[in-house]
Design goal:
The complex is a heterodimer of chains A (about 350) and B (about 260). Chain A has about 350 residues and is mainly α. Helices cover about 75% and strands about 0% of the residues of chain A. In chain A, helix 3 runs parallel beside helix 7. The chains are: A mainly alpha (about 350), B alpha/beta (about 260). The interface between A and B is large, with 30 and 41 residues.
Chain lengths: ~350, ~260
């Protein structure tokens, strides 16, 4: 069998609407997920957990969230870091107030709280667009970080001003705090990410997702066909913020273990996530994963090769990484706004006709 | 068009509409009606106020004076999406498709007002959401067949040639299954063959889907062929209103179209 779209015919609309219409794609995805759940937990160690797997999962979640808002609904946001902070502080307040509450529920509730905050900060989007909206969301970024620094209630009046993740268990296994085994934190995050990625896919392929894309592509036409701009934009802000909030809660609770808002949730994080979706592909679920994986792994890889292998100085490599990422951003913005995903799609289209392109 | 066609009561009545932008009077005291089942043409020179009239009808512009009656009721101040829900769909003079979406998704978006599954059902793609999606896909496929655009079903519409984009836009409006369909210059910029196709689609849509249609068109030949009655606008005023034959023989209309100065 050969990898291409031609010859893979569908006989029902249901089959035609599948997430991965190609049989081979479907197999690869299932194998990949099976591998991630059944094999990786046995191989994982501290290094892989902290440097690769958890960051990839956390930032994929954040990228999914921003992609819903920016890639699907066309509303640019530079507030991702701030909304991650909302998720982190919500999970902290919830789990310290109710230690018995299951961490899974804590994290989902944190997403819910972030969704509400997101709707609030999304209200200006009804009046302002594009660049001005980006500036408004930038303001929310700074406001939120300032708020979590300023109001001691948020960090339970701790002397350091930091928040620290307490130890919590799920089904008797420790998943947060310093004693959590790598396989447990990994499986916990993986489960969240897989479930919410499927949900994101479902939302974006149906009625609501089309209303987001309609607003993105031509808001006037969307309105005359019956899409209420208010509902469409605010639902995008809500869903997007939910994901970003869950990412923030995972980031703090599972990955960092302790956080201070300026450091952990600064504007650099907002840009990082934005770069991820630009490189991975705006308006693509898979693209969110590709972008996050790429931007997390690239520095790890280059550091291992250049510092570990060739003995280059660390700061030189750090700067080099920044320059490479900058170059890539420019490349994708100018040449291929739909990112790596689109390059893949083009390849597929070429393969459909291969070997006779005309 | 044969003169024997008879129509029901008005689906839409425009009463004494006046609309101004600052000092510019786009519409002055316009009244006319559109009967259920008919094809109504709105014609007039460039800048006559035809597009403005459609914008008033679907709620983009709010006239300073006058009333709109839809389906027997006086219409309150509604937003465009609420008017869509009441049953008015339209196409634009400059194509306004969702460029990043496929033909299929554009048409499915046309079904938006008929779909009701909630966000949780959609998130799980379970029960109502999936059932609804398949049901409406069926309906959309009928329109795809009707417009003969099967081969571009999955193509992002931004990549289609102009004539096909116009057709997809008609498809999106048809997918809404509205009571009244407004078409703003559906044939502008098309070649003869494309125009003939479009004429056929409009007539068939009127016939098969029982859609009442109001269209703006410049090509007088097309107007005479397609429409049951014609309103003529000029400088924001109504110049004439009647059957294509009456309008064609109206001296004021002839003058306006030939550029003779107004008496
Ligand atoms: N949004 C607007 N702002 C200012 N003037 C407008 C606007 N829309 C239409 N007009 C004016 O109203 C008049 C009628 O325009 P329009 O309805 O587009 O004419 P037509 O569609 O018959 O060519 C023109 O003089 C135009 O400049
Ligand atoms: Mg016009």
């Amino acid at each position: 069998m050969f990898y291409r779209e031609s010859g893979d015919f569908k006989t029902s609309y249901r089959a035609d609407q599948q997430t991965f219409p190609l049989k081979l794609d479907r197999w690869v995805v299932w194998l990949f997920i099976a591998f991630a759940f059944l094999v990786v937990p046995f191989l994982i160690n501290d290094y892989w957990e902290k440097s690769v797997l958890l960051p990839v999962l956390v930032w994929s979640m954040a990228a999914l969230g921003l992609n819903i808002l920016t890639g699907y609904c066309g509303q640019v946001s530079l507030g991702t870091g701030g909304f991650m902070a909302v998720g982190a502080y919500a999970s902290y307040k919830l789990t310290t107030a109710m230690p018995e509450l299951n961490l899974f529920i804590v994290i989902i509730l944190s997403g819910g709280i972030t969704a509400m905050v997101g709707v609030l900060f999304g209200l200006p989007s009804l009046r302002i667009k594009g660049f001005y909206l980006a500036v408004a969301t930038l303001a929310s970024q700074f406001f939120l970080v300032w708020l979590f620094n300023k109001v001691p209630w948020f960090y339970n009046y701790s002397a350091s001003g930091q928040i620290t993740a307490p130890e919590r268990t799920i089904l008797g296994v420790i998943v947060s705090g310093p004693n959590a085994p790598p396989w447990a934190t990994y499986l916990f995050c993986l489960t969240l990410v897989v479930i919410l990625a499927i949900v994101a896919r479902n939302l974006t392929r149906g009625r609501i997702g089309r209303s987001w894309m309609a607003i993105r592509d031509m808001d006037i036409a969307a309105e005359i066909i019956g899409v209420p701009p208010l509902a469409a934009k605010l639902s995008a802000f809500a869903v997007s913020s939910f994901y970003v909030g869950v990412a923030g809660a995972m980031f703090f609770m599972i990955y960092l273990g302790a956080a201070e808002p300026t450091e952990a949730f600064g504007i650099d994080k907002s840009f990082l996530v934005l770069f991820m979706i630009i490189i991975g592909g705006l308006g693509s679920i898979v693209g969110s994963f590709i972008g996050a994986t790429f931007l997390i792994l690239l520095p790890v890889l280059l550091k291992n090769i250049l510092v570990g292998g060739f003995g280059w100085p660390t700061d030189l490599v750090a700067h080099l990484i920044l320059m490479i990422i900058g170059g890539l951003i420019m490349f994708f913005l100018i040449v291929e706004p739909h990112g790596l995903t689109q390059l893949w799609r083009i390849t597929k289209e070429k393969l459909r006709l291969w070997p006779f392109p005309h | 068009m044969d003169a024997q066609r008879t129509f029901g009561e008005p689906i839409l009545e425009v009463k004494n509409i006046s609309l101004a932008f600052g000092g510019v009077k786009a519409l002055t005291d316009i009244s006319f009606d559109i009967l259920k089942g008919e094809v109504r043409a709105i014609i007039g020179p460039n800048g006559a106020g035809k597009s403005s009239m459609l914008n008033v009808i679907n709620g983009f512009y709010h006239p300073q004076q006058g009333e709109i009656w839809f389906d027997g009721q006086k219409r309150q101040n509604l937003k465009p999406f609420q008017i869509a829900k009441q049953g008015i769909a339209r196409t634009f003079q400059n194509i306004a498709l969702f460029k990043g979406m496929s033909t299929l998704d554009n048409l499915m978006t046309g079904r938006y007002i008929h779909m009701h599954s909630n966000i949780f059902s959609q998130a799980l793609w379970w029960g109502k959401a999936e059932r609804e999606e398949l049901q409406h896909r069926q309906r959309v496929e009928e329109i795809i067949d009707f417009l003969e655009i099967q081969s571009i079903r999955k193509t992002p519409v931004g990549r289609l040639p102009y004539g096909l984009q116009k057709r997809v836009e008609l498809g999106r409006a048809l997918a809404a299954e509205s009571k009244l369909l407004l078409l703003d210059e559906p044939m502008a910029g098309m070649n003869l063959e494309e125009k003939e196709d479009m004429c056929r689609f409009i007539l068939d849509a009127n016939d098969q889907f029982d859609t009442t249609i109001a269209l703006i068109e410049h090509d007088m030949g097309v107007v005479m062929d397609l429409s049951d009655r014609v309103v003529v606008l000029d400088y924001g005023r109504k110049l004439a209103d009647g059957s294509p034959d009456e309008v064609r023989n109206n001296q004021a209309v002839v003058d306006a179209y030939l550029g003779v100065s107004h008496a």
